[in-house]
Amino acid sequence: MTPIRLVQVSDTHLSATHAYFGVNWDAFRQAMADAPPDLLVHGGDLSFNGPAAEDDLAHGAAALAALGLPWRAIPGNHDIGEAPSFSRLDQPVNAARMDAWRRHVGPQWWRHDAGGWRLVGLDTALMGSDLPEEAEQRGFLAEALAKRDRRPVMVFMHMPPFDQDPEDPAPTTSVIPHRARGSFLDTCVEGGVRVIACGHLHTYRRMEHRGMEIVWAPATAMVDVRRGMARWQTFPRPGYLEWRLEAGQASHRLVEPERMFVIDMSGWTMRNNGTTTTLPPWSGSP
Q1: Burial (0-12, 13-18, 19+ Cβ within 10 Å), 120
Q2: Burial status of residue 281 (CB atoms within 10 A of its CB: 0-12, 13-18, 19 or more)
Q3: Which of 33, 46, 177, 240 keeps 20 to 30 A from 71, CA to CA?
Q4: Where is the Calcineurin-like phosphoesterase domain (predicted)?
């Protein structure tokens, strides 16, 4: 097969009214213009605060379309909300938020065949949600894997399946809930998944699990330097991943454009007892 060049970008947090991270998106946009990939996959948190501001979703979708590339996207918690029992931001995923994503961006889950690979996109907000859509997505995944016709599979999802220990039962908003994790990983292992590509935690990381490569994409938006150093002994930097898909093989490289700046908002959020979504409006203009 002819190699497929695929770019995975995640956690862009785009908004017209809260344009804190627009400068890094501009750098990404220029990189895509200089070397267009065969396919772009956005790994979630396209928008700054989509659950509360539908205009952010529209703005993010327009920014993707303006790249002039074939693209797919999956929702993140800042696009569609979180599983109701694990809603740190008090933005549980619901029908209205799912409808807004579908209307402005596209389906919550999808499959796409590229060369000899099957690509599958999933919505992690549904995992552990107990919503009817959770069962629908689970059935979709089972069918997409069963009918892959021996293709290796790459799964895109926003939240990582786990951090350090896949058996850790602690409640968390950092990775998919434990009650949904085991069956999901079993389905992937049994169904020919070679790669799980995720984001959400705004740092680059890779690991192996039961024959699968799990790769965390960095953000193009903000980072938390203190958390990265304390939790993963890594200085998080903005960037994206470039994948090369060949017959039965997937490789990637981390790209950190020179014009992407390390933007750490954790000082403001700690002093103001807030989250990034509570930052005041800022258009990016002087």
Answers
A1: buried
A2: exposed
A3: 177
A4: 4-204
Residue 203 half-sphere exposure toward CB, CA atoms < 13 A: 20
| Distance, CA of 225 to CA of 211 (rounded, Å) | 31
pLDDT tens string 121-136:
999 999 999 999 999 9
Element (H, E) at 232: helix 225-232
Q: Which residue has the tokens 């220990």?
A: 165
What is the SS3 assignment for 164? Answer: coil
Can you tell me the distance from the alpha carbon of 17 to that of 34, in angstroms, rounded to the nearest whole number? 28
Sequence ranges of the domains in the chain:
4-274
Rounded to an integer, the average pLDDT of 51-60 is 97
Mention every residue, 6+ apart, whose C-beta is less than 8 A from residue 103.
none
Rounded-to-integer distance, Cα 125 and Cα 134, Å: 9
Strands 153-156 and 39-42: unpaired
Nearest to 261 by CA among 83, 20, 10, 17: 20
Long-range contacts of 262-266 (CB under 8 A, 24+ apart): 262/223, 262/225, 262/236, 262/237, 262/238, 263/20, 263/21, 263/24, 263/221, 263/222, 263/223, 263/238, 264/222, 264/223, 264/224, 264/225, 265/20, 265/222, 266/224, 266/225, 266/226, 266/227
From 16, 73, 21, select the one nearest 223 (Cα to Cα): 21
% helix / strand / coil in the chain, to the nearest 5? 30, 25, 45
Predicted structure pTM score: 0.96
pLDDT mean across residues, the chain: 95
Distance between CA atoms of residues 221 and 239, nearest Å:
9
* Per-residue pLDDT tens over the stretch 242-269: 999 998 899 999 999 999 999 999 998 9
Nearest 5°: phi and psi at 216?
Answer: -95, 125
What is the C-alpha to C-alpha distance for residues 33 and 100, in angstroms, rounded to an integer? Answer: 29
